[in-house]
Amino acid sequence: MAYKMSVIIPCYKAIETLSKTLHSIAMQSISDEIEVVIVNDCDGLNYDDIMYVFPELDIRYVVREKNGGCAAARNTGIKNCKADYIIFIDSDDCFSNCLALEIMYNRIVAEKADMLVSVFESEMRFADGVGIRKMEHKPTWCHAKAYRKQFLLDNNIFFDEELRINEDAEFHQILIDLGAKVAEIPMVTLMWRDNPKSITHQSFYDNKKTFVQAAIKYLAECEKRKMSGDKVILRVLQNLVVIYQYYNIVLDDCPENESDYLDWCKKYWKVCESIVCEVDDEYITKVYCSIMKDFGVIPNVTFVQFLDRIKGVS
What we know:
CATH superfamily of the largest domain: Spore Coat Polysaccharide Biosynthesis Protein SpsA, Chain A
Number of strands: 9
CATH architecture of the largest domain: Alpha-Beta Complex
Strand content: 15-25%
Order of helices and strands: EHEHEHEEHEEEHHEHHHHHH
Low-confidence stretches: none
Number of helices: 12
Helix content: 40-55%
Distance between the termini: 65 Å
Largest sheet: 9 strands, mixed
Shape: globular
Number of domains: 2
CATH class of the largest domain: Alpha Beta
């Protein structure tokens, strides 16, 4: 059978949540033209009773031999799926409505795009209620995105398995800067359930530190692929400003990690200094202002002070 889309679900200790995710796929208007690839990241659990409830879904169940994290599970899914177009969804999230996949498929095909970006909402549960927040449709996270598989394979684009967090940031930066055609739809297609048990929430500080590591890996990948030019320069500056804002967040929320975070910032500066030093101040200011408007954090230190610290200027 020729599937329209493969929905890849990295799965780790998801007994309590996977059923809801599968329900949201089963209700899709094109559910009979979708392949579901569940990748068990070696959690030792049995999901047969859950999958048995959805005989209408064509489910391919793959068990990894060793635990590798979300990046490794997604890579396994890419290598085992059959459709021309791929969607990733976490095992605790769900699609927002029954037309989500049909609309995403029709748009990415019509636009002849390599990636489609839609909007997702974040569900946050509190003791006194539930909050829903609409997230902008930016090509950062894997949430609410679709991909043309052949573009990924032709360009050897996979998730860096050394990154357990922020693996999607480096993945998308490489994908876009290699010239992927990106289409957008201003439609909510996915509900991201903000799960306090997820790896993203296990360490607030690790989330910030790993972004710096992902930015370093982006540059290493650029060097390996011999990528250069304006796209890479812009990306390096954007990452530098985000890393700076994360530094201010670290100072506010986990100051005990300041020294370690600065060490990682210094490592980033070491690999990007030659690129940044070639850019004039006006362009840096333009990039800085475009990024800062999206952050609601009042800086503890100025950008210049931050640069002095990572350069080792007293």
